[in-house]
Amino acid sequence: MHHPTLTSDRHLVIEIPHLRATASRAVVLALETAVVPTVLFMLLLNFTSLVPAAAGVLGWSAFVIGLRRMLRRDVPHTLLLASGMLVSSAVFALITSSAAVYVLQPVVGSLLMFLLFVGSAVIGRPITARLARDFIHLPAELFAHRTVRRVFVNVALMWGGSRLIDAAMTYGFLQWSLDAGLLSRGVLSGLFTALTIAVCAGHGWRRLRGLPDVTLRMARPPEPA
Fold first, then answer.
1. Around Cβ 40, how many Cβ atoms within 10 Å?
2. Phi, then psi, of 138 in degrees rounded to 5
3. DSSP 134
């Protein structure tokens, strides 16, 4: 993460993390939290039964977090949140003895996220303003700009809409078959989320770079070890 620096009394220069490094982290997180556990659940469910499939997801989540701890690597809040959802979905699937619950619970989660993002935008306190600070250090005075506040409101509305579409997409695929629902949740949802991130980032970059007293620039790529 890079700290914004003042180049004059009021002018701000904000460094955005390099795209390549950010994309690499996003791909790893997608594999850890969506693709691998979904494929693992699908294979074990088809070749064994629900109990080994749910246990496989639980074991995978513990393995990923444990390995990061052992290697003294950061455990992102995104990974903890996604792992928590995986574990709760697997536990509910075991309790109800229904594999469909494993897919339906994230659908409910997406609907709740829709309400959270849109609700925060409606009341003028977009949650995206807080989430942005998890990735970039932003000075408090930056939020005094009406344009900046509007950007975060728009991004919150975009995210809310994308979560609603994601929930509808997964539920629609689940009507075809359980495997189709798993495919939608594990692969298509990740791709759709990546597209949403790109759209929101592009919108924010385009609007903020037009501010006369704020300069956005990309950080230098990390040097190879």
1. 17
2. -115, 135
3. T
Strands 214-218 and 12-16, sheet pairing: parallel
Sequential pLDDT tens for the chain (225 residues)? 444 443 444 566 666 665 566 667 777 877 888 888 988 998 998 899 999 999 999 999 999 999 988 988 877 766 787 788 888 888 888 888 888 888 888 888 889 889 999 999 999 888 887 776 655 666 666 666 677 788 889 999 999 999 999 999 999 998 998 888 888 887 888 788 878 888 887 887 787 777 776 666 666 655 554
Tokens of 49: 């039964």
CA-angle at 173, arms to 42 and 99, nearest 5°: 40
Give the pairing type, strands 12-16 and 5-6: antiparallel
**Tokens representing residue 176 in the block:** 């075809």
pTM of the model: 0.69
Angle ∠(215,77,142) on CA atoms, nearest 5: 25
Given a contact cutoff of 8 angstroms between Cβ atoms, the answer to whether 102 and 88 are in contact is: no
The residues, ordered by sequence, that sit 6+ positions from 84 with a Cβ below 8 Å of its Cβ are: none
3-state secondary structure of 28: helix
Phi-psi region of 129 (alpha: psi -120 to 50; beta: other; left: phi over 0): alpha
DSSP, collapsed to helix, strand or coil, labels residue 214 as: strand
Q: Which residues contact residue 74 at a Cβ distance below 8 angstroms, ignoring those fewer than 6 apart? A: 68
